[in-house]
Amino acid sequence: MRAAMEIRQLEKADAVRYHALRLRMLKLYPDAFTSSFEEDSQKPLSWVEQRLAGTAPADFVLGACSDGDELIGSVGLTVEARLKLRHKALLFGMYVAPEHAQHGIGRALRVAAETADQRNGQSSASRRMLFFAPGRRDGMPSQCKRAEMPLITLTILKPKSSAFKTTVLGAVHRALVAAGVPEKDRFHRVLELDHEDFRFDPDYPDLTTARDRDFALIEILLSVGRSVKIKRKIIEDIVAELESGPLLLNREKVMIVFKETSWENWAFGGGRQIHV
Known about the structure:
Layout: E1 5-9, H1 15-28, H2 37-40, H3 45-53, E2 60-66, E3 71-79, E4 88-96, H4 105-119, E5 128-132, E6 141-143, E7 151-157, H5 162-178, E8 188-193, E9 216-223, H6 228-244, E10 254-261
Parallel strand pairs: 4-5, 7-8, 9-10
Antiparallel strand pairs: 1-2, 2-3, 3-4, 5-6, 7-9
Helix pairs in contact: 1-3, 5-6
């Protein structure tokens, strides 16, 4: 059972702890935030205190504290100063220490931020919550959700054993979980086709080992937001496991394609677009 937790607005007195938490966040997940560990580690404590002080009624940073008053998570909210853009609020720096993950703390922080914003006189219906999507460095805001929800399609030649399919899909799922996808977010589809319905060139564009009957085409459909670096890590995790695992599948015979879609394109059940 998770210990008691308090979510409250952080103040200048919390600057040292918040700065330490923020540096840990940037060091662990360098591709998830627009700030960098190198830059923030050089900033004076006065910069952190100013951020916690806020500059407008709706600008603040919330912290999640354990019952021992340890700072284990945080999220900030800032509102556009320009009159025509005040219907937008930006959530930034969302982070929960890994050892306290999977307890709903991130969700609780987000809900607390939205609730605090509403108490400042802004209804949730009229304010659009935005955030900087994980892995993006262009500063473009996205809907305030995590970049999860992959749909995996594995296309292979007949016949393939259940063990072959399970091994390939397992490697894909583990690589995605390592990149931040929830363990239960598993939606896999297998297309097992004959030669007439699955045609491919044996060595295009630069293969050193020709594709053969064990060729595996893996398509990963997911929401926008992953960086090139994160995608490369997913690819390497997949091919490394398949090459060293029970299949001993040569990485040259594994083709991986990422396809991205917008948040509004998901309706998991009941016709509900839960991310709109």
